[in-house]
Amino acid sequence: MSLDLRHLRAFAVLGSELHFRRASERLRVAQPALSKTIQQLEDHLGTPLLRRSTRRVELTEAGRIFLIETAGIGAQIDHAVERARKAARGVRGELRVAYTDFAINGALPHFLRSFNEAHPDIYLDLIFMPTIHQHEAILRHRIDIGFLYGVSNQQLIGSLPFDDNNYVAILPADHPLAERKQLTLKDLQNEKFVFGTGDSWMIFRNQVFSECRARGFLPEVSLEATSSDGIFGLVIAGAGVAIYSSAIGNMPRQGLAIRQLVDMDAKLPITAVWERGNSSEELAVFLHFLRRFRPLAR
Question: pTM higher than 0.85 for the full model?
Answer without folding.
Answer: no
